[in-house]
Amino acid sequence: MRILVIEDDKEAAGYMIKGLGESGHVADHAGDGEDGLAMASEGGYDVLIVDRMLPKLDGLSVVERLRAEGHQEPILFLSALGDVDDRVKGLKAGGDDYLVKPYAFTELLARIEALVRRRNPAEVETSFKVADLEIDLLTRQVKRGEVEIQLQPREFRLLEYLMRHAGQIVTRTMLLENVWDYHFDPQTNVIDVHISRLRTKIDKDFDTALLQTVRGAGYCLREPG
Length: 225
Prior knowledge:
By secondary structure, the chain is α/β, with parallel strands linked by helices. It has two domains: 2-119, 3-Layer(aba) Sandwich (Rossmann fold); 127-221, Arc Repressor Mutant, subunit A (Orthogonal Bundle), CATH 1.10.10.10. The chain is 40% helix and 20% strand. The chain is built from eight helices and eleven strands. The protein has helices at 10-22, 33-41, 59-68, 84-93, 105-119, 153-164, 172-178, 190-202; strands at residues 2-6, 26-30, 47-50, 75-79, 97-100, 127-130, 133-136, 141-144, 147-149, 211-214, 218-221. A five-stranded parallel beta sheet has the order 2-1-3-4-5, sandwiched between helices. The longest helix is centred in the middle third of the chain and has 15 residues, at 105-119. The chain is elongated. The two termini are 31 Å apart.
């Protein structure tokens, strides 16, 4: 998922973005309400996480303006203001959920996933399968046949992207932008290294290889034939 974090506390935002990235999500950051409103207005986010107390434009106003513009993406308020009246104000402003600081990161993830499921129950795919290889985005479980495969967070994101585009050629640029969130070529072999590691885990001990290198073009995850 692509998530926008609108939070003025740089340390808190950094912790959250790091955790979201390690959990397989792409997170952008806005440090004040005006920047957050501008970034959210452009669209393209699956979830917004909004602090209440923001410089330039407070969180309630950000959410009210987004809803007035017709934005329907799920919004989670994350705030130190935890009284009942504060939570009610957040929900009435257009928030879908309200989590009080300090919080457990596992609960934050669970609430994000629940918001997306509730908002788009028929649209959000949470599992993919290619041949006997399966990935579950909610439990973060990967299996090939009856064998469970352990992946590192970046390997999981890489496999998720390949499975979402199964049967299609995925270029290095596509992987850099959507898995690493790079919009430039770092001139390293980071993709080759991760593809090699992923191939070892999902193909090496199995009869059929699913992850193919398409010379001069990129990679393709597909069922043979």
